[in-house]
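I'd like us to work through together how a protein chain folds, taking it slowly. To get us started, please write out a protein record for me. Go ahead whenever you are ready, and we will take it from there:
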Amino acid sequence: MKKPLKEFTEEELSAAFGSDLSEEERDQLIAAEGDSIFDPVEEAAFHSNLRQSGQAVQTQAAAAVPALPPSVKAGMEQAMQAALKEKAAADAAFQKQAEAAYQPPVPKMVPKEKKFNFSALLGLAGACAALAIGAYWYVNFTGQSGSGMTMAKSARILTPGPVTGFSDPVFTWQAENGGAVDIRILDKGKVVAGIETVFSPIALDKLGTGLNLEPGKAYTFQVLSPEKTLAEKSFAISKDAAVGGPVREPTLEGVIRQCENYIAQNRPADAWMLWSKLTDPEKQDERMKALKERIMALIG
C-alpha cells in the first residue's frame, strides 16, 4: 500500500534503500521526499534489483570493481546534494500552487504526485466555447432560444406613449415574427425591472418587482432579444396620472367612449393599452377592429 516516505518503518526503509545508508543520508532523503508517496514493497524490489546489478558488475578477471577515487565520489555527492535542493524547491513551489488553486468544496488537497492537467482545462474551455458558438448560431439562424421558444428578431414598441396617464402602464409591442422577447425598465440608465421570454402585452404589476413609477418622472422601456436591443423608447408618467393601469368599461360601447377620450387628450397609446385588454372574441367585433386601425394610425 502506498504511503508517504516519512511514514516508512525502519525495516521498510532498510528494505527499500539498503542498510548501508548513514543516518545523515537517511535524514536527508526523508527531508527531501518525506511527503512523496511510495509503495514499500515496490521500492524494496526496485532497489534490490539495483544492488544485485551493481554486485554483478565485475572486471573481466572476476575482480571486484575498484572503489571510486575520493575526488569523483565528492563530486557525485555534491551533485546529489544540489539535485535534492532543486527537488525540494520544486516541491515547495508545487505545494504553494496547489494551495492557491484550492477551492471548496474539495475536501483535501490534490495528491502531490498528480500534476495540474492543462490539457483537460483546455479541453473544457474549448467545449464551453463550442457551446456558446452553438447557442449563438441556434438563436440567430433558427430564431429559437435554448428552450425551443421562438424569439423575436425585430420589434416595434407601441405603449407607453411619450406621456402616459397611468402609474402602472401596460407595455405592448409588435414582434415581426410573433416571437418572444425580454423586456427591461430603466431609470436613468439603471435597470429597475425586467422579465425574460414574454409576449405582448405585459402590465407593470406582472414584473413582480413592486416597482412604483413616480409621476412626472421619465423612464426607458427596452425590448430585447438574447443578442441585442430590438427597440427602445422613453416615456414619462404624467403628474396627474391615475393610480394603477387602465380599467375598462364592461361594455364595448363604454370601451369605445374611453378610447375616444384618450385620443382627444392626445394619448392614443393609452387608448391602445385599454384596447389590448379586450378578450379575443371582443377584438373580432367590427367596431373594435375599426377602433384598432384608428389608434394604430395615430401611434404611427
User: Anything to note?
Assistant: The mean pLDDT is 78. The first strand starts at residue 3 and ends at 4. The two ends are 82 Å apart (CA to CA).
